[in-house]
Write a structure and sequence with these properties.
The chain contains six helices and four strands, in the order ααβααββαβα. The chain has 138 residues and is an alpha/beta fold. The longest helix has 13 residues.
Length: 138
């Protein structure tokens, strides 16, 4: 925690620390986010699998499902280098928000080399919709 506080101090960013012993971590995260009007939750993910995940549940899944703000999941042993970004769209009405945010991230990433868009047209009519309404309106 000291490393985070020191990094914030060096960048002149206010850092508030909240400590909780509530066993329901997702409730703590969601409550703090709501109380502090948070725009983005960034959290790590342990990637429990199989029976362990069923028994223990997934804090990250619950936060993603219930958060009223955006959530960035950072898997264990991964690194954000800022050189490449992928946007996944599926032809739904929700694509415009994700597209807008992805493009804004790219604009603020001086190291960016590649922006990849993956279009998942799960239904045949979505292919035409994506071409007509999304790809040319970005």
């Amino acid at each position: 925690m000291d490393e985070v506080i020191d990094a914030c101090t060096m960048e002149n960013v206010k850092c508030d620390v909240s400590i909780s012993n509530n066993p329901n971590a997702s409730d703590v995260i969601l409550d703090e986010a709501q109380e502090n009007n948070i725009d983005l939750i960034v959290m790590g993910r342990r990637a429990f699998m199989g029976i362990k995940r069923l028994i223990m549940g997934s804090v990250s899944s619950e936060v993603i499902d219930k958060a009223k703000c955006k959530v960035l999941m950072v898997p264990q042993d991964s690194e954000i280098k800022g050189k490449s970004v992928m946007l996944v769209v599926n032809g739904s009405d929700y694509n415009s928000v994700a597209s807008h945010d992805a493009i804004n991230i790219c604009k603020r990433s001086p190291l960016l080399k590649t922006f990849t868009v993956v279009c998942l047209a799960l239904q045949r009519h979505n292919i035409r919709y994506m071409v007509d309404n999304w790809l040319y309106n970005v």
